[in-house]
Task: structure prediction
Amino acid sequence: MKDLVRHKSLLSTEIESSLNQQIKKEAHSSSLYLAMASWCDRNGFDCSAQYFYDQSEEERKHQMKLFHYVLDMGGTAISPDINNIKIEYMSFREVFEDALEQEIAITQSFKNIAAKCHKEQDFVTLEFLNWFFKEQREEEFKARRALELFDLIGEAGTGRWEIDRHIAKIKYSEGEEA
Amino acid sequence: MNQLAQITQTEVFSTNFGSISHCPRTDLLTLTFSGKTVTYKYPCLQRLNKVINQVDLAKMTDASHSGLEIIFLCGAEDCFVLDIHEILGLKDLLHGTFTMFNLNSTIKDCLQRVI
Ligand SMILES: [Fe+2]
Ligand SMILES: [Fe+2]
Result:
């Protein structure tokens, strides 16, 4: 008999469902960042609002990158349903604490998928995931750097205004020489 | 189904309840179960498997439940109306079938696609 399983798709059922979960997580990230942008916008932190609008767009791109991969490999990509997005934050700092927490969760999630790929020797998907690992390096760096600014500049006086202005300048250079 | 098609069918898996066979010419899968014969493409059979596995069997035994489930597949013409015994039978048949598909894939890997 022909190998119908393999002819249909490169992805195993398990990997396909992990990738679909990741699609949902990226969509969730995108919504979270949009909510953060809204909060910053409402509270006068214009640079941070822009930073989160951009992050939200990026997460949408991550979602679509995964989406197309699943489809191209013969799987079924599932359009996720996102709800329960936080609207209010207690403080400016809390927004960035949540952002770092979110990026860490995403990195961990990719590590779990990669571990599954190793287990079933899905080196094709593993190679595809490398792009995301590199991306997470940048994402975690930026989120951590933002929080660092709170400690460096301090929130007293015009501190928060100063922090907001510096958020716009955060850039990851991958250790290249300046 | 014409004679020729019948000859070329390869049985994938069968139980007392029914059987599933594969046509190597068209790649269609024929499910014979509870007096019905339905032909599916592979992804459609995958969906059927998923739907059957999602049926809440405990709920079906509730006094308020009709005891019947209507299994309707998007993209397929037919639907099944099944009682709990038939659901269990179909579940068994599909489980065996997908085990055979996966086993076949593994064997192909070992014998033909040198690792
Ligand atoms: Fe992402
Ligand atoms: Fe991210």
Notes: Residues 13-78+90-167 of chain A form a domain with the Ferritin fold (CATH 1.20.1260.10). The radius of gyration of chain A is 19 Å.
